[in-house]
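haha ok so turns out i had the wrong file open the whole time. this is the CORRECT one, sorry everyone. sequence first:
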Amino acid sequence: MMNRVIISTLCLSYLLFTNLAYANKNFHNHSHKHDHGTIEVASFSEIPSLKIEIVKDSVSGWNLHLVTKNFKFSPEHVNMKPVQGEGHAHLYVDGEKRARLYGPWFHIGNLLPGKHTIRVTLNANNHDGLVFQGHPIEVSKNIIQ
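then structure:
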């Protein structure tokens, strides 16, 4: 009987350990800082641009719409070499990175009451920030929850 308890405990411990190790390996914490570089787009044949629209959702949170020109969302190329005019976006709420955006629409959940700054940056496939004449291609807007 004692052997069954020991074996069961060891099996359970192994399963928990491997699941936690897998989860930690595949979990990406967006709250910490990354040291991404930048890519100057002034020499591109078509300069990417970004506008954002933020609308209060009728049920909860906010709906964020990214309006881009000369930029294609390419989630299938994330973490790969930069390609002119494609990539993804990064979403920041109050200066904290919250998500990668792989398309033009994103739902931001409810925020704490008060004023919040929503910032979106355009990024190359390798996460480098796109800049035009030294200025990041990004947009910030304030919302009040």
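The chain has two domains: 1-30, 38-144.
again sry for the mixup
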